[in-house]
Amino acid sequence: MSQLQGSSSLKRKRQDLALVSGSMTDGERVLYNLIHSKKDMGIWTGDMKRQTNLPDSIVKKSLKLLQSKNLIKEVVNIQNKGRKHYMAAEFEPSKEITGGDWYTQGSLDTDFINLVKEVCLKCIFRQKVATRDGVLEWSRKSGVFTVEVTTQQIDEILRALVLDDEIEEVKSTGLGDFSSVPVGRICYRCKSKGGNRGEHKPGAMASIPCGVCPRINFCTPDGIISPRTCVYYQKWLDF
User: Fold this and answer.
1) Whole-number Cα distances in Å, 89 to 8, 16, 62, 85, 170
2) How far is Cα of residue 28 from the mean position of the Cα atoms in its chain?
3) Which of 48, 91, 113, 235 has a 20 to 30 Å separation from 27 between CA atoms?
4) CATH code at 95?
5) Residue 213 domain-assigned?
6) Residue 229 lies inside a defined structural domain of this protein
């Protein structure tokens, strides 16, 4: 968009707002100016009443009229879900209000979190070792997600998996499994065992068929029971 087009668009918006403003009551105008001044943080109705000294009946009626004109919208404040929170329609709620990328409509999206965990684990398991950027690229190419997964989200999930003892953070030696990763680069690999007794640690990796297979002790690369011929293992890899 050219500067001229952008200027014209902004001018039209101001003109439209001026026309709407002309049809506002005094109560509407006072509330709208206050709500608009809070930008992407919005404001709670209790604070509106305190800062404007308007009667409760006027506040309720004005808010309803402003919403009907699509000038304001009600949003969920994750810190105080029970409070009615409003902001001007042109702004998007800040992360302080929504709770961040892991929240949807004010609720923690546990299904999405678990899905990202599974994809990260699968990537690391298949590659043996993987960097953060490698996991991010693999997850985006997997076609599993309907929304774009961010670098920050992958970082947060990898840290959570390390804390859950599902994976470990290591530095590449450039040898063996680390041959594809530059020496000294931080990368991740799965931890198949945990604790002093060497028991398999339950968690997201339990979704791998090997983790619950009763014949795992007889499974060898070239044996009758083998990952190469296991249909369940292949289905898991083809996720």
Assistant:
1) 20, 14, 15, 12, 47
2) 35
3) 91
4) 1.10.10.10
5) no
6) no
End-of-domain residue from the set 81, 100, 119: 100
Q: Are residues 122 and 39 in the same domain?
A: no
CA–CA separation, 53 and 75 (whole Å): 23
Answer with the one of 100, 130, 147 that is the final residue of a domain.
100
Structure tokens at 65: 């009229």
Map tokens 């931890």 to a residue. Answer: 191
In a domain, 216, yes or no: no
Extract the tokens encoding 88.
């001007």
Q: The whole model's pTM is what? A: 0.50
Alpha helices in 142-183 (DSSP H): 151-163
**Bridge partners, residue 199, by sequence:** 194
Range of the domain at 17: 3-100
Digit-by-digit pLDDT tens for the chain (239 residues) are 444 444 555 455 554 554 455 578 888 999 999 999 999 889 999 999 999 999 999 999 999 999 999 999 998 887 777 888 999 999 988 877 776 677 776 677 888 888 899 999 999 999 899 999 999 999 888 888 877 888 989 998 999 999 989 999 999 998 888 888 889 999 999 986 443 333 334 444 445 556 545 555 556 666 666 666 676 556 555 55
